[in-house]
Amino acid sequence: MRRLSIATAHAFLLVYSTTCLESFTSVKCYFEEIREQRQDFQEIPIVVAGNKSDMTSHHRAVHLEDVSEWLYCELPKLRTKLLECSAKDNYNIREVFRTFLTLSKILTTNGEENSLKRRSSAYVNKGKCDVSQIRKKCLFL
Description:
By secondary structure, the chain is of the alpha/beta class. It has one domain: Rossmann fold (3-Layer(aba) Sandwich). Helices cover 38% and strands 18% of the residues. The strands form 2 sheets. It has a 4-stranded parallel sheet, with helices on both faces. The protein has a two-stranded antiparallel ribbon with strand order 4-5. The radius of gyration is 15 Å and the shape is globular. The two termini are 12 Å apart.
């Protein structure tokens, strides 16, 4: 099922916990799956979000600098954005999804909705987009 989702997704949101190095390792593995299955992986929007930014620094296992180095130095020329957020404190949650939709060109930079075109299905929506269409177009790992 994941292979099919990766093959048809238009964007990816990869989330790791800033307090768990294993979760960041999983994000790297998911990215490798995307790279192996999609020849156009450099053109696909990917948002990498570090959750639990509300935790104190002594609980932090994954530092923003390490993720930045992996994302921007080891993997240059990608349509990516790195953000940290806290679901508990509702910090940067809207920004994560706004960035996700903007990179996916579902929302324009001024917040207007864009028309959706799905690569592997018969429908094309020229009006407003709704949440069910966004869910069909995106894969959350």
